[in-house]
Amino acid sequence: MTVPSGPVSATTETERLMFEFVDAYERAFEAAAKEHGLSPAHACVLGRLDSVRGMGELSDELGCDASNVTQIVARLEARELAVRQANPDDRRFRQIQRTTAGDAVYAAFEESFDFPRRAVANLTTKEQRQLATLLGKSLAVKERGA
Amino acid sequence: MTVPSGPVSATTETERLMFEFVDAYERAFEAAAKEHGLSPAHACVLGRLDSVRGMGELSDELGCDASNVTQIVARLEARELAVRQANPDDRRFRQIQRTTAGDAVYAAFEESFDFPRRAVANLTTKEQRQLATLLGKSLAVKERGA
DNA sequence: TATTGTTATACTCTATAACTATA
DNA sequence: TATAGTTATAGAGTATAACAATA
């Protein structure tokens, strides 16, 4: 189990609940991945392979180094959950995709990772819309610089 | 940068925003820790040392193995950010606490980790209360078993 | 003997730097 | 020469199992 991101001496109840939510989400993700023999990183990459992807694309989205993605994908390939093929138009590029087995494992993982579904299910339709609006508004923080 | 927990093919906008929020929170935590030469795990443990703590207490709260905490605390001690002392009443127990230097580093980290503060600042007081209520309600998922 | 914590070990995640293959 | 990706390597996080110290 990865140690949680926090707590910081939360000054408000809202901040405390943000941390609790993030912590619960992460723990649930990790536990669901483990159920299917996946590390969080493997589950994450597998989830991005809904369509054919390039290595650079993946490392950009994941915000991590390309060499890291190479290793994760190499393991997925070794387990026959994904394959890498050179792009015939420019053989420097690789095309990564899930195998049928990868599809099955990922579907099973998603079934296990019920935290977001259950969290939403605890709310009325109106509350779900409210929560989405508030989260979106709070995330505007990202745009404000720093 | 740790790879994000997701995405899972989010079926609703609310679920998608939950992931985005968690992802942004984690990235901000990791970046703030790095600014002060801390790993996320170090920042996390340091944050728990606001008062004197035991090793078992820490591993319980962190949801990870005791041997893991031993290593993290050993590094904090090597950097003179924390100290371990045997409890004189029962020398099997250790009392972990931050040093003055540890206090300073953690305070600086908290100053840098402004994501929750800024997220809250994007909301009105009423919206903050609403968000806290909705997050709390969605987290009831934890109590429902599984 | 039971409990607290540590050490030894192994595996994964991650990044940096050097490298290969392709263009 | 420039770009996409890989390999070599090293450091940190994590868990399991064996261990030491204390009770």
List the helices and strands and how they pair.
The structure is a homodimer of 146-residue chains.
Chain A: H1 13-35, H2 40-48, H3 55-62, H4 66-78, E1 82-87, E2 90-98, H5 100-112, H6 115-121, H7 125-138
Antiparallel strand pairs in A: 1-2
Helix pairs in contact in A: 2-4, 3-4
Chain A binds a DNA duplex (23 and 23 nucleotides) through helix 4 and strand 2.
In short:
Two copies of one chain form a homodimer. Chain A has helices at 13-35, 40-48, 55-62, 66-78, 100-112, 115-121, 125-138, and strands at residues 82-87, 90-98.
CATH architecture of the domain at 13-113 in chain A: Orthogonal Bundle
CATH superfamily of the domain at 13-113 in chain A: Winged helix-like DNA-binding domain superfamily/Winged helix DNA-binding domain
Q: Give the C-level CATH assignment of the domain at 13-113 in chain A.
A: Mainly Alpha
What is the strand arrangement across the widest sheet of chain A? 1-2
Quick one: biggest sheet of chain A? 2 strands, antiparallel
**Approximately what portion of the residues of chain A adopt beta-strand conformation?**
5-15%
| Backbone shape of chain A | elongated
- Quaternary state reads homodimer
